[in-house]
Amino acid sequence: MTRRCVGRYILGELVGGSAYVEVFAACAVGEHGFQKPVALHRLHDRSAVRGLLGRAQLLVGMHHGNLIGMLDLACDGNDVYVVTELVDAPSVRDVLDVHGPLSPGLALYIVRCAAAGLAYAHARGVVHGDLDATSIMLTRAGEVRVADVGIAGRPAAPSDDVRALAATLDELLAHARLPRELAAVCARARAGAIAMPELVAGLVAIAFAMQWREGARELAAVVGERAHAEQTEVTARPVTLVAQSLMLDTPTLAWVRPPPAPPRERAPSVLDVISGVEPRVLAVLAWSAVAGMFAGILLP
């Protein structure tokens, strides 16, 4: 099966996207033929492409545990692809579709982790601009990772991300009645009247005051429930399976293991030799050995 190549990347299936971008599973092929799964994002908006080229070095240099990092840019004719880490994980929306509303403690854990990553981006002048429940990924290890940071196709301000995160929290809680302190913070966030670092600090303080201790372990259990309910590995972003299929469909680039060496012949042991001798011969040999020992003792 022939695969399309974009530079040193083997392009796979379309696995997601939005109004501004299409997301493909892909493999990066190294100098020695080794392959690494990645995701390629093809931008639709030409103005977004021009803006991205100007800040690509900044985006590649951003590293935060709650962000899906940008690795490279690739070009194919007039198309520009953003290369990012490949994270095989359901989104907040996927988990809500199966599990339903989450507990307040777990919802706050997800939102404050996403807010921490976005605060890091905002401090470097990078805004998401297209944030919703489909761009926050929840891994089976209980990690919260925000996708598509800095590649939206429209101008945006940090307050847009704050409002979008408040809307995601409402969705996680299904608009349940909130404690007074949390309701006040959410109201300011919906109005865009609070900066992302303040939102992080406020959510941490509320979780501590309410003794909501849910974290990565509880989130991992919820994500695991979703996987068990579906009884399948195919998600809205089935990147692991697609990446594996890419490797299987490109045998000329796959890592070729040398054939196993033939088993070495074992030299016969003493037991092997003895087992092949008839019992009568063994008896004669034994008596001869005993007689020789006594002769050596008795004769001077």
Describe the protein's architecture and organization:
It is built from ten helices and eight strands. By secondary structure, it is an alpha+beta fold. The strands form two sheets. It has a six-stranded antiparallel β-sheet with strand order 1-2-3-4-6-5. The protein has a two-stranded antiparallel ribbon with strand order 7-8. The N and C termini lie far apart (88 Å). The model is unreliable at 232-259 (pLDDT under 50).
Provide the descriptors you would attach to this structure in a database record.
300 residues; alpha+beta; Phosphorylase Kinase, domain 1; Transferase(Phosphotransferase), domain 1; six-stranded antiparallel β-sheet; two-stranded antiparallel ribbon; 10 helices; 45% helix
Secondary structure elements and pairings:
Blueprint: E1 5-6, E2 9-17, E3 21-29, E4 35-43, H1 46-60, E5 70-76, E6 79-85, H2 92-99, H3 104-123, E7 136-138, E8 144-146, H4 158-173, H5 180-190, H6 196-209, H7 216-230, H8 239-248, H9 270-275, H10 279-298
Antiparallel strand pairs: 1-2, 2-3, 3-4, 4-6, 5-6, 7-8
Helix pairs in contact: 2-7, 3-4, 3-6, 4-5, 5-6
